[in-house]
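Issue 218. Parser rejects a valid record. Input:
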Amino acid sequence: MKYNVPDRVMRDIAVFAKECSIQKVILFGSRARGFLPAFAVLEGTLRTKAEEAQDNWD
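Output the parser choked on:
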């Protein structure tokens, strides 16, 4: 499936997902509304949730 997202961004998403053991990433939104700021917020949220999950796992 082709996405209207730069290859570098897709690689960054894949690396981040692998580091956090995320099995599925759902992309949503519109480039007209600004994809990159939304990704920055999403990254922060995912990092927070990954830390919470790790704390609960320990």
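Fixed in the parser; the record now loads. Residues 7-57 form one domain.
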